[in-house]
Please model this.
Amino acid sequence: MASVFDDQRETLEKHEFMLGIPRGRLAVTLDMITDALILVGQHGVYCTSARNPNQPALDLQTVMQQLTGAKELIQSVLHELDSKSNSK
Model:
């Protein structure tokens, strides 16, 4: 498996140039997590819970919760960085 720095080289370079290295990397991370959430959501359409066919399987629900939580944390870091840079 290639490194994320190799796989996402062009995207990282673009975002790091526009936002700086830390913010650019966080922005790309958010995009990657969003893509993963979309894929898990699509998979959840086919892998439903045995208890409730209207819900994704429990393992997919857990993955989605964890990805959503990680995304919220990254967004809060970006917001905090923006707040600090605006207060200067």
About this structure: The first helix runs from residue 4 to 7. Helices lie at 4-7, 9-19, 21-46, 58-86.
